[in-house]
């Protein structure tokens, strides 16, 4: 049920005010059935816990301009900080004749970090919560999301993708993607940041939650429903399987300049602060 795309911002706000108490009560009732199975509170200054996190490296996806490197992620004062920087980075794999942008770019103009739990932790079904403060300036694209662990075998989107928190061009997004007949099928939800209070809202910490079982994925922020995805429709059209009934791993990153979006110099450096990430299962 894509609530956001079927309502105006004013209608959406009224609807959220009506449903929020119900959602909170439901969550409290469900909490007693969950047990914490994985967490990171980021309480130790320095590098993120290498027992829990790995990293993506270099140019990775979407023709984005940032170079991912571990140096842009660190823990301080009880927070994970992912920092974007404007700095030139030479591509050691540069090949001017190659068609792949990840190889034919000689330099990166920006750096950031993408933390992943692939090879460290994955799960099927449960509840995930994250408390974080995101930067919503132009050119920034913070995200907390999941990919199927079989991505290297079946490729994207057949591995499945869930965007628990994604900010892009004035909207919070909550999406799921899987394999379609001609490309990618999406269940997309766009939540106008202005409805919540815009930049003032983004100046504070907020809690994102995903509840995932064999029937659906429900994504909320501060107890407000953002998207509800039925898993009856998420069958890969060519593979014939349902990726959302298999293990997934977590990703935390800040990308830049998606789709050629201008990145004003005054918006870099920027920081995404994560207070905790917790995973529960029944």
From TrEMBL:
Residues 40-282 form the GH16 domain. GO terms for biological process: carbohydrate metabolic process. Keywords: Signal. Residues 1-25 form the signal peptide. GO terms for molecular function: hydrolase activity, hydrolyzing O-glycosyl compounds. Belongs to the glycosyl hydrolase 16 family. This is Beta-glucanase. The lineage of its organism: Bacteria, Pseudomonadati, Bacteroidota, Sphingobacteriia, Sphingobacteriales.
């Amino acid at each position: 049920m894509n609530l956001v795309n079927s309502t105006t911002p004013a209608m959406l706000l009224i609807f959220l005010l009506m449903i929020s108490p119900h959602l909170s009560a439901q969550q409290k009732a469900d909490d007693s059935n969950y047990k914490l199975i994985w967490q990171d509170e980021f309480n130790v200054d320095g590098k993120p816990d290498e027992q829990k996190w790995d990293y993506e490296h270099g140019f990775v996806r979407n023709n984005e301009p940032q170079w991912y490197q571990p140096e842009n992620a660190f823990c301080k004062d009880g927070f994970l900080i992912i920092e974007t920087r404007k700095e030139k980075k030479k591509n050691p794999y540069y090949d001017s004749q190659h068609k792949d942008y990840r190889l034919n770019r000689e330099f990166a103009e920006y750096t950031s970090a993408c933390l992943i739990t692939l090879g460290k932790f994955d799960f099927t079904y449960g509840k995930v919560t994250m408390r974080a403060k995101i930067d919503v300036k132009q050119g920034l694209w913070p995200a907390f999301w999941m990919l199927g662990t079989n991505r290297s075998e079946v490729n994207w989107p057949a591995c499945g993708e869930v965007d628990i928190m994604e900010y892009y061009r004035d909207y919070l997004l909550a999406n799921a993607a899987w394999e379609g007949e001609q490309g990618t099928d999406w269940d997309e939800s766009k939540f106008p940041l202005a409805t919540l209070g815009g930049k003032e809202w983004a100046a504070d910490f907020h809690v994102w939650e995903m509840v995932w079982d064999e029937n659906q994925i429900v994504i909320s922020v501060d107890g407000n429903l953002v998207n509800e995805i039925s898993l009856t429709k998420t069958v890969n059209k060519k593979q014939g399987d349902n990726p959302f009934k298999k293990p997934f791993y977590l990703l935390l990153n800040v990308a830049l300049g998606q789709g050629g979006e201008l990145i004003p110099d005054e918006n870099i450096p920027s920081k995404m602060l994560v207070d905790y990430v917790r995973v529960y299962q029944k």
